[in-house]
Write a structure and sequence with these properties.
The chain has nine helices and nine strands. By secondary structure, it is α/β, with parallel strands linked by helices. Strands 1-4-3-2-5-6 form a six-stranded parallel sheet, sandwiched between helices. It has a three-stranded antiparallel sheet with strand order 7-8-9, covered by helices on one side. Helix 1 links the parallel strand 2 and strand 3.
Length: 261
């Protein structure tokens, strides 16, 4: 495996299928599931590791985001990734950068309402990654359901030649969806955070709110939306940590501790 830090270095073999798994690093078992799904479907597998500053609306959250490229590269290598693309902010947004992708449609409400400009950052960096890596297929996680819907809309509306595939959410043994932010939860906060998965398991907006309230978790939103199919989505702060999770209502798969959804 090689680690590439600049766009000109991305001189990838163009025989067979090139796959991309975009990440912000802090890799965990959820990312491993993406790598494993991708490894079996492509000849050259690229993982990007880039903490995209323009999708953060909270500077404190941006600065708190964990960064350990050496560890991430080792995780990626163990999962069969061929290339880790880990550009700097200046590489992705050089001086004078002034062109943005501003999605509407699937980007409206939910995350965008609480993090204004978030999907401008997501859509812009995804289009840049698609353009510089030129994959035929890219993989995203189901947990970030609105992001999945926005990226699919981006690809459709702008005629980007990449297929988007989605991998089910990976959960810890206590039901909590895997996230780099989980490491910032205290033991007491983690116990309360488990209510998010229990709320989603109700598959009902009002019942989900009741489950969260009983656990002392105040959500930023609990809503059913069309996000690549009808989806129950939740965002909530537990202590200082903001967590998001979702479940597709058309899958009809039980969601309980230790399950995937």
């Amino acid at each position: 495996m090689i680690v590439v830090r600049s766009i000109p270095e991305l001189d990838l073999p163009r025989h067979g299928v090139v796959g991309l798994v975009p990440t912000m690093g802090a890799l965990h078992a959820g990312h491993n599931a993406l790598f494993r799904a991708a490894r079996g479907a492509c000849d050259v597998l690229v993982a990007s590791v880039f903490v995209n500053p323009v999708q953060f609306s909270d500077d404190a959250d941006l600065h708190a985001y964990p960064r350990d490229l050496e560890r991430d590269a080792a995780v990626a290598a163990a999962e069969g990734v061929d290339v880790v693309f880990a550009p700097s902010t200046a590489e992705m947004y050089p001086q004078g950068f002034a062109t943005w992708v501003v999605p509407e449609g699937a980007a409206a409400g939910l995350e965008e309402a609480h993090r204004p400009g978030h999907f401008r950052g997501v859509a812009t960096v995804c289009l840049k990654l698609f353009n510089v890596v030129r994959p035929q297929i890219a993989w995203f996680g189901r947990k970030d359901a609105q992001q999945v819907a926005v990226v699919k809309q981006l690809v459709r509306d702008l005629n980007v030649g990449v297929e988007i595939r989605v991998v089910d959410t990976v959960r810890d043994s206590d039901g909590l969806a895997l996230s780099s932010r989980n490491e910032r939860l205290s033991p007491e906060e983690r116990t309360r955070a488990r209510a998010i998965a229990r709320a989603l398991a109700t598959r009902d907006e009002q019942e989900a709110r009741a489950v969260l309230a009983s656990a002392g978790v105040e959500p930023e939103y609990v809503a059913v939306a069309d996000l690549d199919g009808p989806t129950l989505a939740i965002a909530a702060r537990v202590g200082t940590v903001r967590l998001i999770d979702s479940v597709r209502l058309i899958d009809n798969v039980p969601l309980s501790e230790g399950d995937t959804a």
